[in-house]
Amino acid sequence: MTQPLTGILPVAPTPFHADGRVDEDGMRRVLDCLIDQGVDAICILANYSEQFVLSDAERETLMRISLEHVAGRVPVIVTTSHYSTGIAVERAKAAESLGAAMIMMMPPYHGAGLKADETGIYEHFRDVSDAISIPIMVQDAPLSGVNLPVPLLVRMAKELENVGYFKIECPFAADKLAALIEAGGEHILGPWDGEEAVTLLADLDAGCTATMTSGMFPEHIRPIVTHYLAGDKDAAYDQWRKCLPLINHENRQCGLRACKTVYAEGGVIGSDHVRHPQKPMSPRTKARLLELARELDLTALRWGK
Predict the structure, then answer these.
(1) How many CB atoms are located within 10 Å of the residue 16 CB?
(2) What's the pTM?
(3) Domain ranges for the chain
(4) How far apart are CA 47 and CA 305, in angstroms?
(5) pLDDT digit of tens for each residue in the chain (305 aa)?
(6) Cβ neighbours of residue 152 under 8 Å, at least 6 residues apart?
(7) Catalytic site residue 286?
(8) Which of 115, 167, 279, 286 is catalytic?
């Protein structure tokens, strides 16, 4: 990449057959559907890809399939998070060797009580940065329960060669983004939004330049970012208001299941199966999801038909 990534960089869901096996052909169709929606990059093996229910062998297979199938059509961001620094290093090196444009990492944690301190976090990212030559995006998400203070993030951006992108999805994300941009200046290559764009308008006001949502409807969320960055805030706001009911329902009621359900409804994938202990959404929640999706005439609802 010669220019910082901006726009929309959705997380690809991992499709499973109804019996729980990874659907390799479905993965290829997911990637094609996302590219047809005009995305600026695709992220794989993230939390919304159900990375926490995949075996190491499945991760390797999905990474290889995804990078080979996308074949440079858009940049691919590979999530390589792990509590072990050594494993995180090896995952990052493998991603780079297969053609990843960037990696995404959460800080090292394992449950509520096993977390690295600030020195350990810095060393974790330092060791990965030293092992590869592609950019690293730091994911600051509530799931980890790890506090990532702005001074620590700025220090990593200034001192670690490959750290320059930050997905901020903690509470009060906009204020943290603004503080990060102010303190980090030119070292903050990508101040990004997350949380399925539920805070996107405020985050754009704070200076974010991209959003990493689910893959459910990037063709409708991308214009919010592009209009805003082009200076047309009224158009961005109008598009935001149009998308907000579906954004809210996905974020607050459905979670990672939403994208898979829409993709299955539209024939992109054959099943919206989620692996146990995740459970299917209720018929009530699903009905509202599909009603809101149809109101926006989502590409994914007709892509495979």
Answers:
(1) 22
(2) 0.97
(3) 7-232
(4) 28
(5) 678 999 999 999 999 999 999 999 999 999 999 999 999 999 999 999 999 999 999 999 999 999 999 999 999 999 999 999 999 999 999 999 999 999 999 999 998 789 999 999 999 999 999 999 999 999 999 889 899 999 999 999 999 999 999 999 999 999 999 999 999 999 999 999 999 999 999 999 999 999 999 999 999 999 999 999 999 999 999 999 999 999 999 999 999 999 999 999 999 999 999 999 999 999 999 999 999 999 999 999 999 98
(6) 118, 121, 122
(7) no
(8) 167
Q: Which CATH number fits domain 7-232: 3.90.1640.10, 3.30.56.70, 3.20.20.70, 3.30.450.90?
A: 3.20.20.70
Task: Show the tokens assigned to 151.
Answer: 């001074």
**CA neighbor of 222 nearest in space, from 31, 73, 63, 36:** 36
Contact 191, 7 (CB under 8 A): no
- Residue 93 is encoded by which pair of tokens? 């090196």
